[in-house]
From TrEMBL:
It comes from the Bacteria. This is Glycosyltransferase. Residues 12-149, 266-448 form the Glycosyltransferase 2-like domain. Keywords: Glycosyltransferase, Transferase. It comes from Sanguibacter biliveldensis. GO terms for molecular function: glycosyltransferase activity.
Length: 528
């Protein structure tokens, strides 16, 4: 951290105040005074509360503790004006945002202090809610820094700690963003931040009171409007060609990117021309996969590279020529089944700037499917995108990979298709630890950069390995919730995991404990 001068505190807690319940305000102040880290100041700005008792309480607290300062505005200006009044008085190196009726844990500032380095510009923590009965509930276990999620939801929220110099550099809070002023500020700060740190501990209790967004997301509709405006301006500033729309619930946004239609795309599909029953009808999987994909995209420079086993029936190959026409590239494959090798051989026979790897046992559902997958790849730090996959009964097969300690599995496996997930996980694009090889997209040069798919993993974990290689070189991986497909996996593959594949994965990417794995697969797994 840069050196501080004089008696300036490390943390300046900024709290705009307007007509809170007195008990809640008193408890908020007490939670600040109870910090194990003493290096702070609390700046309370009363925004002309109608009840003199509010000011009397704040004056009394300031008189008893020199670290508490009270500023009384003569005219009510709203939360942005009051917050900027507080910012003008900040003396600390870090701005800490705390609402007038919430609580911080006693170790909050110490936990933040412990992660600060000269490169860190923004810190956020997990949070939960607290009811009138004092019971804490609804913990939000937040992900590590996820800029894509922040565009869809103000997920960092509480506790937020921002470098003061950077807050001032971007102009503080802005008029016209009331209700989502913190979302707007964090978007602008993180556009310039060098490092963003997540503390995976609850350091903040969001109080649920009548009329608050904590208890009723519909309580402040103007905040949703302001948030959409903040996200759109953010997209424009960072050069992402996209439109911010309202999402499926207040506080959620949908980002509709504009795909680059000048990009050539190669879709690589390994197949043996197999068939099976789907919803009571027999189908040849690869034919329906190609047909559905072409029906759900308008990308003009598209080729379909089908890598087929020599045993594939000739009638299947002939029908593929009819369905795909001059977009089709047929690549024969000899030898034992090896999904990775088939993908690599398809890559060598492809010409597209963008590569999509796709199973043959899928059916595209959403419009602009290819466009949705490839559009984020215009952003240089995005290395891989993947879609949302449903089983035939519309339960979820893939919502991103889980890599947590000794678990490697699909997030939200088996959840209903219309579920929102924990804190709307399933209704927004977000960074993921990994993505299923049944449907992923990346730039051609990045396929080459990481050496393609590992042929030492012919069936299982090749997508885990591929995802981890791309993350290892610094890329973000995006799960695109609106790129939706059916996946008929249970009908077309042996689900058993081979012991040598487990050995390979854990040798290359060690984890603490392999006990969950057996040759027959996972014994247990969490739902998220």
């Amino acid at each position: 951290m840069s050196p501080r001068t004089g008696d300036a505190p490390l943390f300046s807690i900024v709290t705009p105040v307007y007509a809170p319940p007195l008990d809640a305000l008193r408890e908020m102040i007490a939670s600040v005074k109870d910090q194990t880290c003493d290096d702070w100041e609390l700046i309370l700005v009363d925004d002309a509360s109608p009840d003199d008792a509010v000011r009397s309480l704040m004056r009394s607290e300031a008189a008893s503790d020199h670290r508490i300062r009270v500023i009384e505005r003569e005219v009510n200006g709203g939360i942005v004006a009051a917050s900027n009044t507080a910012l003008a008085e900040v003396g600390g190196e870090w701005v800490v945002l705390v609402d007038h009726d919430d609580l911080v844990t006693s170790n909050a500032l110490q936990q933040v202090s412990d992660v600060l380095t000269p490169e860190v510009d923004y810190v956020y923590s997990d949070e939960d809610k607290v009811g009138d009965d004092g019971v804490f509930y609804d913990r939000f276990r937040k992900p590590t820094w996820s800029p894509e999620r922040l565009r869809h939801q103000m997920y960092t929220s509480h506790l937020s700690v921002l470098r003061t110099a950077l807050v001032r550099e971007v102009g503080g809070f802005r008029e016209g963003f009331e209700g989502s002023q913190d979302h707007d500020l964090v978007l602008r700060v993180t556009e310039r931040a060098r490092e963003v740190v997540h503390i995976p501990k609850v350091l903040y209790h969001w109080r649920v009171v009548p009329g608050s967004a904590a208890g009723d997301p519909d309580a402040k509709p103007y905040a949703w409007v302001a948030g959409r405006k903040a996200v759109q301006e953010h997209l424009d500033r960072v050069g992402i060609r996209a439109v911010a729309e309202f999402g499926d619930a207040p506080g959620l946004y949908r980002i509709v990117r504009e795909a680059n239609l000048d990009r050539s795309v190669s879709v690589i599909i390994p197949t043996r021309g197999g068939d099976g029953l789907v919803w009571g009808d027999r189908r040849c999987f690869v034919l329906e996969a190609v047909r559905s994909l072409l029906a759900h995209t308008e990308m003009p420079l598209l080729e379909i590279v089908v890598v087929y086993d020599l045993a594939t029936p000739d009638v299947v190959l002939e029908q593929l020529k009819v369905i795909a026409g001059d977009k089709l590239v047929l690549v024969p494959f000899a030898g034992e089944f090896n999904f990775s090798k088939k993908c690599n051989e398809g890559f060598l026979s492809s010409s597209g700037e963008i590569i999509i790897l796709m199973n043959d046992d899928v059916e595209a559902v959403s419009d602009q499917f290819v466009e949705t997958l490839v559009a984020p790849l215009e952003e240089p730090d995005v290395g891989l995108t993947g879609g949302r996959l449903w089983f035939p009964d519309k339960t979820l097969q893939h919502g991103g990979h889980i890599y947590f300690k000794d678990v490697v599995f699909h997030s939200y496996f088996g959840w209903p298709h219309d579920a929102f997930g924990e804190f709307s996980d399933l209704r927004l694009n977000r960074e993921a630890s990994g993505l299923t090889g049944a449907c992923i997209a990346l730039r051609r040069e990045d396929y080459e950069l990481v050496g393609g798919m590992s042929e030492a993993l012919p069936l299982s974990f090749n997508d885990v390995d591929f995802s981890r290689k791309l993350r290892h070189v610094g890329y973000r991986l995006l799960w695109m919730w609106e790129a939706t497909m059916f996946h008929f996996e249970s009908q077309t593959r042996d689900p058993r995991v081979k012991e040598y594949e487990v050995d390979f994965l854990f040798k290359r990417w060690p984890t603490p404990d392999r006990d969950l794995f057996t040759p027959d697969g996972l014994k247990e797994y969490p739902l998220w």
